[in-house]
Amino acid sequence: MPTARTRAWLVRIGRVLLVAVLSWLALRLIRGIDWDKVLSAITDLAWWQAVVLVLAGVLRLAVLSGVLFVLIETLRYPQALANESAGAAVSTIAPDPSDVVVRLAMFRSWRIETTSATSGLTLRILGFYVVRLAVPVLGFVLFWIAREYSSGFSWLALVGGTGALLLLGGLVLALRAAKSAAFVGSTLGKVVGGLRPAGGGPEIWSGRVVEFQSHSADRVRRHGATAALVLLLYVLVETGVLITCLSFAGVRIDPGIVLVLGCSFLVVYPMNGLPMMGLGVLDAAYIAFVTDYSDLDPTDLLGGMIVWRLTVQVLPVLLGLTTLAWWRRTTGASAESA
Fold it and tell me: So where are the chain's domains?
């Protein structure tokens, strides 16, 4: 069995190889790009198209907010929307775990019980990773049924599906292991007690972790399926937003092309979990897949991807910072002093 240090090095090497391969793809892509045409695709957007994209960006956040609304009891939907908007902005412009700190501060200011808030946020993050890793399987199967078998899609579906099953299995085991939760809590209590006696002893920490585990298990049992469906709906909405952005940038749209655009995005969707939503890496892989199965111009595709980036990254930052400023003026000061 490899040691923890060996596994860590293997993960690092794997990341370096992945970035190297995708950077090579990106360089191949850039050489054939007409940048004047890309700029024209962005600047030639009509005012009504800009309005549609703003509404699409808001819809994307609105759907994702439903996950927190489902998983955190006593949280109202407008609060879930504000929390998701602020979290998206902070995670884009600040390092982890800044967004979690801000999210929890917002929950405290709204008098959301700490265990409920922490449990719901943790389940939302883990659930999103499960769905993110699983959707390549959906893209591969849809493409195989509607058009043809793709070996490139199959490998990504296999890797993503395996990762989703492992993560889901680990989550299920964790939610069922009350004894393990008590042991982890007791161990944390001993460590914290040695560093900061006022932090509580093993019994207190054991109770806290068991309460967190049992609360999370109850929420998954009662609302896990609904949260998973909302997350899947979110991915489909994001796929629709991308296709809309591509069409506004001049990409030809017909049923066959929509199949290629949609399935290719689902297959590369796990790269969305990389820093900056896989900026550059996801784009290069996506355009490479689309051009393999269609005659679309990479220049048009890149223009559409940039419009999509503006819609799903720049717009949420503006909305989130506005939401954060509103929260600080209304309830943020009391939360920070609490």
Answer: 38-337
Beta strands in the chain (DSSP E): none
In which region does residue 3 sit, left (phi positive, over 0), alpha (psi from -120 to 50) or beta (all else)? Answer: beta
Instruction: Reply yes or no: is the peptide bond before residue 97 cis, omega within 30 of 0.
Output: yes
Measure the CA–CA gap between 39 and 282, rounded to whole angstroms. 20
Residue 296 exposure: Cα atoms within 13 Å on the Cβ side: 29
Calculate ∠ Cα 159-242-22, nearest 5°.
45
Task: Give the residue among 122, 132, 154 at the shortest CA–CA distance from 232.
Answer: 132
Model confidence over 185-223: pLDDT tens digits?
455 454 444 434 444 455 544 555 556 666 677 777 888
Which tokens belong to 31?
């050489």
Residue with tokens 């890496």: 281
Q: What's the gap between Cα 71 and its chain centre?
A: 16
Residue pair 315/57 in contact by the 8 Å Cβ criterion: yes
The structure tokens listed for 321 are 């910072």
Helix (H, G, I), strand (E, B) or coil at 296: coil
74: DSSP letter: T
Q: How far apart are CA 327 and CA 321, in angstroms?
A: 10
Task: Tell me the percentage of the chain whose pLDDT exceeds 90.
Answer: 28
- The label of the residue with tokens 């007409």 reads 34
Beta-strand runs (E) in 23-137: none
Q: Could you count the other beta carbons within 10 Å of the beta carbon of residue 59? A: 15
- The per-residue DSSP string of 52-78 comes to HHHHHHHHHHHHHHHHHHHHSTT--HH
